Amino acid sequence: MYSGQPFLRYFILNNIKKTAALILFISLLAGIASCNLPSGSSETEGDLNVTQAYRTVEARLTQAVAQTPLATQTNTATSVSTASPTLITPTLPATYTPNQPTNQSSPVSNCDLAAAGNPIDVTIPDDSQFQPGEAFTKVWRLQNAGTCTWDQSYALALFSGDGMGALSNIPLEGQVAPNETVDVSVDLIAPEAPGTYQGNWKLKNESGEWFGIGPSGGSAFWVRVIVGDATTLTPSGTEISPTLTTEPVATDAVNTNVLVSGPVSMLKGDKLDLDTKGIDNDYEDLMFYEEGDGQLFVAPFGASQFAEVGAGPPTIEDCNSITLVSTPYKIANIASGTYFCYLTNEGHYGWLQAVSARREEGELNMQILTWAAP
Hints:
It is built from 6 helices and 21 strands. It is an alpha+beta fold.
């Protein structure tokens, strides 16, 4: 039989051993250290104290950890950090073709396009004068600038303006291959009432689609004549006196390098390049448009500017000294013969003269002069 004090010491020491063994068992995964611990006996247990027990456990744990290989952990980390990603290269079909950008500015198929011949006005220059009722024949020279051949299914047709007694649809004679030129003509009769008359013409294909001259094939070619006593009309219909349309070019224009000059006709929606007289090209300066209430306006486009200067042609010094703006002008408020100074997107000064406007047809006729000097 044990006495109470030895039994208590035995009980405490025995539980310390069990607790240390349990901790060591959990730490070394599946009892690595527990197999190495001594079973202990009643003879030695009496000599152990609590401090010795913990020191024994610590020493065994240190020994067990030292005996555990670390190569597995090191190799695992190295394997993760040095692995190269696998690149997947898509396999394209043998017939694969990359998408190409669409040229939005090209006319549809470039089939039907015309260009001005040399010269375009074979007969009846602009502002030729006729007596009321006088017959005449207008001839234009055109080049087939498209890829389709013109034949008898194509026709010369009145697009807008004054028909002056002509047939509205005149079939072409023969065939005109791409790059070839042809002279097309129309028989006209001068109206009975004195005034300035203009008819705008284009070509039609067999499907009834319109096409004309210019970079996009959208510009008309025209005939403009003066009947009897030359008069022009304001948009409101009031007759006024003749203006520069029948007079020589201003003196300062003769002595100054002129970039471009002459008559210009615009239709609703057209944009005009005042440096080239081109319609609807890449560097427009002036646009002619209609508002929702049916009113027609002319306005500078892009960085161009203009301003009204009065009834006489200005000099380049005049245009350089006045204030130019980007404000639109209502056509109904512009008297025929009025001059404007302008500055183009290319930095050239010039003037334009409002000749006539026809609200019903949506057209505006002008004279322009652009100086080459800045």
